[in-house]
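Re: the request from the purification team.
They wanted to know what the chain is likely to look like in 3D before they choose a buffer screen. I agreed to run a prediction and write the result into the notebook, where they can find it.
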Amino acid sequence: MPAARSAGLLAAAVLDALLGDPAHCHPVAGFGRSAAALERVSYRPSRRAGAGHAAVLVAVPTLLAARAAGRGSAMRRTVAVAACGWAALGGRSLRRTTSRMADLVDAGDLPAARVLARSLVARRTDTLDGPELTRAALESLAENTADAEAGTLVWCAAAGAPGVVAHRAANTLDAMVGYRSERYDRFGWAAARLDDLLGWPAARACAAATVAAAALTGEDARGALRAWRRDGARHPSPNAGRVEAAFAGALGVTLGGTNDYGGRVEHLPRLGDGPPPDTAALRRAVRLSATASRLLTLAAAVAAWR
């Protein structure tokens, strides 16, 4: 079983690097549609209703993944892990989208950049200028390197295909209902807390990988470690702040500021030291993310094997 898990993990990483997200019938998109359909009948403005909603949507696909990966030959288990891991990973698409954002901002095509930003962030994008679009993209890159990549790899190493599916389901559900809005303040509480719990080890692993990746790519590894330790806990998210701070410190920039989430304005703390990020820093962040991902993949494969 450990060998099958390790081989499946490596296969998933290779598939993501070569192909990116599945082009058609993406399982995560299908999960989102199912979650939205269930919400139409399960929604109540209460934590109890939200907890039941989250429990069903995380437990059912996790049990299906456990059944698929728990029977048959080692090859079948390897394929199950690889398929689940490939569906959950999103590093190639994430970095390609981020690079595209840098190109659009450099070209002065802010309308197209604002449209593209909607695939990266939940904040309002129609009024963002070039520097704010760049900051939004870099923050999303850092956070999703932890969510989509580190989370998948850590939970694959720890629990195989069921771990991958449980983490990805919780993370996707948090993105749908985990906001502090009037509608989801109570209903989304359980989904948000579950995502915080499952994302806790991945965020720390990703921050550590970012420090190591900074040393390998010529960025400021000491700055990454310093910002992670000093600024990470200032962020309202117990996980996102750690990785964003590490990226900011590695790149010598400052992240954080005011974000408008459709009328709900948040003033996030400053992370790191230095000027706001420009598109050159955003491109360096793409390389930093890719290197951190490779380090995480290697570490997770070894951990799974052992």
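For the purification team: Strands lie at 258-261, 264-267.
Please add any questions underneath this entry.
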